[in-house]
Each structure stands twice: as structure tokens, then as C-alpha cells.
Design goal:
23 strands; binds S-adenosyl-L-homocysteine; 32% helix; six-stranded parallel β-sheet; binds iron/sulfur cluster; binds FE3-S4 cluster
Length: 486
Amino acid sequence: MILVEDMLHEGNKVIDESRQGEPIMAPRPKSKNGRKLFLESYGCQMNFADSEIVVSILSKEGFETTRVLEEADVILLNTCSIRDNAEQKVRNRLVHFKNLKKNKPSMVVGVLGCMAERLRDQLLEEEHLVDMVVGPDAYRDLPNLIDEVWGGQKAVNVLLSREETYAEISPLRLDSNGVTAFVSIMRGCDNMCSFCVVPFTRGRERSRDPESIVAESRDLFERGYREVTLLGQNVDSYKWNLSSKGEVKDPEKETVNFAQLLEKVALVHPDLRVRFSTSHPKDMTDEVLHTIAKYENICNYVHLPVQSGNSEVLKRMNRGYTREWYLDRIAAIKRIIPDSTISTDIITGFCGETEEQHQDTLSLMEEVSYQMSYMFKYSERPRTLAERKFEDDVPEEVKSRRLDEVIAVHLRIAKNGTSSMLGRTFKVLVEGVSKKSDQHHYGRNSQNTIMIFPKGDTQKGQYVYVQAISNTSVTLIGEVVQTEEG
Ligand code: SAH
Ligand code: SF4
Ligand code: F3S
């Protein structure tokens, strides 16, 4: 669907006076060659991976990326809707761009990603903030949509697809350290967690062809990359040639589940580290855990968002598991991959959460001993099950206080976990120069703990062995005891 608003033009002047406050457009059909693209991304890793697809599509059209906003011909914002404050941040940016456009009317401002999908033409029609709105499954249409805008119209394509995975598009790596890269393995989400906007903004779940995933990983390795992170909203439900019920679709073709995909990518090269995100507690199988344990290059780290430690709250969240089920999955991780770390996501103050239920989250955090937690206050999202069914009844100050308590427990547990690694030597992939000191390199161990160490003669992209000497809550400071070759 391309929804185009017709506008009347007289030279460079928009003559529809009813559209006061709207960015003035100066349509000039032009070639895209050498045109400058400024792209800013918000939200999750999947959005950043998508931005690399967008740049790939537009660079084929002749666009060059720029970091200088003022010289941009096209500004794109790849946006996130997960919480209200994520959207507010983007709105502030869009207001800034709108002001910038006053001095350069030919500049195209477009919003991509989840906010584009959620708000659709509202961003054009009511708020007059942008020229173009493009949802996450419509990026192949971007060159046409930009032409529409240059032709003097506004452009929208927010069609969601059941097939689009951008499988054969080779992402153009942005802000890359040349060592680690994201590889998208699926899109969308078929879960209906009651708090979550993602199923509405990203559409139905679909898996990408495993051949293209392996080919992209191999290509990255050959270009010097040493780590890939396989991305999906629920990687455990990755399936190729399998129906949602697990039946084989085409008996002539290979079937691949997530454990098998992990293995295929691990086999690209023993020096290519493999990570993945995000696992879902209701779907994570022992088969996946055994595959992690089997391959040294699949990292010993699982991000397993719990959201709440109380079974009733989990039920209202429609997460599909109980506290006991979750703890059983944690026990399986600890049993099958003994030297692993675990991280999580937590929401405080979900609809109807009592003080006792909040305490259950704190006790679960203690029980699991997370190495890292990403913690959020519940933010009601339009159209979600929770918005329709439950009252957002936990007062803001209670949500904040509970969040503070969760953060305090996290910091204490994480620091203990990091301290427990002191004295040990870890294999670390050198990722680059430390932000705090140009005399130090940083990298991560298999367990995903950041380690900082004096550069010496270590090189980016090399594996080195670092002994942990001291620590902050989530970082280890160490000394190189052996380089790869040594
Ligand atoms: N697919 C992942 C999560 C993606 S969103 C999973 O199922 O775990 C990342 C995190 O944002 C979620 O894990 C959740 O903790 C948080 N989040 C999602 N919706 C939210 C909301 N409405 N308010 C607050 N936090 C939310
Ligand atoms: Fe949202 Fe749940 Fe899907 Fe994660 S699994 S993206 S929280 S609906
Ligand atoms: Fe945000 Fe969309 Fe990701 S809502 S978290 S950018 S899938």
C-alpha cells in the first residue's frame, strides 16, 4: 500500500495554506547518485540490523552515508515503540529535524521501523512531522518512496509481510568494529505477551533461509569478523521447512530448528564466535543447551528474559510459563553449561502487581544470580492485550521505587558474579580500544563479561588470554597472559 497525499505546488512554494506548520517541500526530481543519507537508529539490535539492510538498499541506488546532519539530502530515523519514552525521544528528534528543514526544504525526513508501523500516516497527517513513513517490511520500496517525496508528494508504506526476511540482501555494516556483527535469522513475533507492542509493529513470525544465514556468517568470517550474534525476538522458535506445529512442510527439503542452525553457524569456523538473542523461557530446549555445550565457539551465555518472578503476574503477562518452569530452565542451563552466565529483562509495576509479587521478582533474581539485567518500568502500549484487559493501576512512584529496588539487587548480584571471576584466565576476543583509555583494549569472554586490559601488542580481531585482576560491577580489568599464537 502506498498512501500518497496529493499536494498542489507552485514552484517551490506549497500553496495549500491549510497545511500551516507542515514542513515546506521543494520538490526537485533528481538522481540519487552522490546524495547524502543520514540514518539514526533506536531500539533493539534488530532495528540496528535492519538499518544495515536499509543502507545496503540505498547505497545500491547511489546514496552515500554521512554523519553530518546538515549535509544530508535524506534523513531517516529507524524508530522503536517498545515504551512510551522511546517514542518521546524520537518525537523530540523529529521536531529538531523539522526545524532544520526550514533552512533546507529539499531535505527528505523519513521515519522507519516500529513507530512508523504503529503510528502510520498519523505522523504525516496529524503531526506533520515527516515526509515519509516506512514500516519494517517495506524497506525494498524505499527508493520508490523517496522518489515520491522528491516528486512533491508524501509517501507511506506500512504493509507487513508474511514472507519478507531480506534474506539475500547483504547488510552494509555501519559503525562496525570489523570484528562483531549481528545476523538476523527471523522477523516478527507470534507470541502475544500482553504488555508488548512488537507483534503489532513487526508482524507475524517468519524464519530466514538457513543457507543465507550460513553464507552471510561465512562471508563475515572471510572479511575478518570473528563473532556473529544471531538475532530474533524468539530464536527458539526458529524453524525452516517446519509448520508451527512442527510438521515437515516439504519432504524433499531439509528441516532446520534453532539448535541445528546454531550448529551450522558454529561449523563455519572454530574461530568464529556465535552468540544469539533472544531466548524465550517457554521454548528454550535442552537440545539448544547441548549444542552450546558441544561447541567451544558458541558462547556460554544465555539471555533469558523473565519479566516477573511471580506466576500470577506471568499469567497476566501471557508469557506462557510459571516461576517454577522458568527456574527449571535455569537449572537446565546451569547443569548442561556449568560455566555459563545468564542475563534477563525485568518489568516492574505491571498491571495489578502487588508488593508480594514484586518481592517474588527480587527473590528470583537472587536465586538465579544474573550476570546482567535490563530493567524497565511498565509502560502501557496502545492496542496491546494489557491495555485492553487490565488497568495500569500501579502508581508511577511505586513503579519507580520497585525499579530502584530491582536495580539495587541487580548491582549487588552482578558485582558478586563479576568478583567470582577474579583470578581466572579467560579467552577474550579483542574488539577495540577502550573508551576510557587509549592505552587499553577491550573485549568479552565467552560469558559476555567485558574485560579491559593493556593493549601491549594485541590486535583487534585476535583471541588473547586475559587474567582477571580487579573489577567493577559488570567489568573485569585484567592482564594479558598469553596471546593466541603464544
Ligand atoms: N522478545 C524479547 C523481548 C523484546 S522487547 C522477549 O520476549 O524477551 C525487550 C524488553 O522490553 C522485554 O523483554 C521487556 O522486558 C521490555 N518491555 C517490552 N514491552 C514493555 C512495556 N510495555 N513496558 C516496559 N517494558 C517493556
Ligand atoms: Fe514481545 Fe513477547 Fe514477542 Fe518478546 S516474545 S517480542 S516480549 S510478544
Ligand atoms: Fe523497539 Fe521494535 Fe525492537 S518496538 S525493541 S525496535 S522490535
